[in-house]
Amino acid sequence: MKDVLVLTTGGTIASQTTENGLAPGLADDALLTYFGEVPGVTLSSEAVMSKDSTNMQPEDWLDLARRVKAYEDEYDAFIITHGTDTMGYTAAALSYLLIDVKKPVILTGSQVPVEAQGTDAVRNLNDALTYASQTELHGVFVVFDGRVMLGTRTVKTKTKSYDAFESINYPYLAKVSSGKVRLAIIPPEEPLVGITPHLTLDTNIFVLKAFPGMPVEIFDYLAENVHALVIESFGNGGLPFQGRNLLPGIKKLVDRQIPVIITTQILEEGQEINLYEVGKQVADAGGITAGDMNTEAIVAKLMWILAETRDFETIKRLMHTPIAHDVDFV
Q: Entry's SMART domains (predicted)?
């Protein structure tokens, strides 16, 4: 027998029509009725919150993580129903907050409410349950449109289509169809050497998307107000140093021991920051490359690390340390 706990948070899957548009309203016990029966599996549910995932906050990630830890000894697997818009952020955050969890934690949701005609919710719920009942892996996963993805690699790439999520820079773990799981890969175990599990976050970070013409003065504000900065750069990690030169701003933050994480606006294949002069100068100014990590994972990981340390070199080391298979190269 396996006992599975469904933690509901709202989202499109639980949304109903209101005078102001779709909003979460379906109760957790009503959502439970859309799961099919799986021999040997007992389902329970608990409502954690009822939010459109646009309103999801880091404090909500902590609430979910604490619920899982509190019930870890009582249940064999967890399914979290969640809105799609910030599911990638929540999945990544839980991957760090629950780095030592020994059970599968599976996020799913839908593009169409479960009560609506043509919904994808019923399939996603039952695929999540199938995976929960059959997997031997532990950690955080997203199951959506028949595909199983690592929590740290899941990114929403479509606003309407049922195949809304992609596994970025990492293979799909499995596919689910007709009540069966077809494995693709089994991620290797990662030792937690030098990593302290904790349920805390420092949310005082900022994400800056580079664009032609970005004013350099923004760095003066950031240097006085944030604990870390993430810059979504161009291409392989490049930022302009002619005209509006951003490099002195980066160096100003680094000189104050404020980490500046450099990622790329390009979704696939990561960055090779030293390949071009425009990237190498960023690295020489102190920018910390994020390799092939996605922004959702960078944000969550940085909040998680900063809650434990503000030491610049330790932050750099941990950002470059693969955790929950979040990075393959830097």
A: Asparaginase
